[in-house]
Design a protein that fits this description.
3-stranded antiparallel β-sheet, 7 strands, single chain, Arc Repressor Mutant, subunit A, alpha+beta, globular, two-stranded antiparallel sheet, 2 domains, about 160 residues
Length: about 160
């Protein structure tokens, strides 16, 4: 955990940002978590250690950390109403969020990777992102490249430009 915080603080310093006690505290809170937390959850944990920290500071700092690549963020509710964060150091994680109670359930990454691989195998496409936008779960927005676009993309990747 200390090396992750040291690396993050080094990045902040190299990019010209001060290493404030609030930033260090938020890095410590994030480093102690194994899953994504929303800003309010992060605030509650940080506020328990330092009552002077504000929710606005948490949001500003999370935005900065995300811009610098120190933190991964994602939306876990339909309509992108809830954003969650974690340090960008761990393995990829995906969640199902209960529409009734809000509990997040970790979904194995291999299930989603299998879905993308199956689309590639059956349709010859390249999947770059997927998002469900229907509360019934039967409408997915899948972005990527058509079979023709995939072929062109592969050719472009093999060209070398000097």
């Amino acid at each position: 955990m200390p090396h992750v915080i040291d690396e993050a603080e080094s990045t902040l310093h190299q990019r010209g940002f001060k290493i404030t006690p609030q930033r260090t505290l938020l890095l410590q809170v994030l480093a102690a978590q194994s899953s994504h937390l929303d800003a309010e959850e992060i605030y509650a944990l940080a506020h328990a250690q330092d009552a002077s920290i504000s929710l606005a500071t948490v949001y500003r700092t999370l935005n900065l950390f995300t811009e610098l690549g120190l933190v991964d963020s994602r939306y876990v509710e339909p309509g992108h109403r809830r954003e969650v964060y974690r340090l960008a150091d761990g393995p990829e994680q995906h969640y199902l969020t209960c529409l009734r109670c809000g509990v997040r359930v970790l979904i194995a990454t291999d299930l989603l990777n299998d879905m993308a691989r199956e689309l590639v195998r059956r349709k010859g496409v390249s999947v770059t992102s997927a998002c469900c936008w229907d509360t019934d779960g039967d409408r997915w927005l899948v972005s990527g490249f058509s079979p023709r676009g995939t072929l062109r993309r592969k050719r472009c990747a093999t060209r070398r430009e000097f």
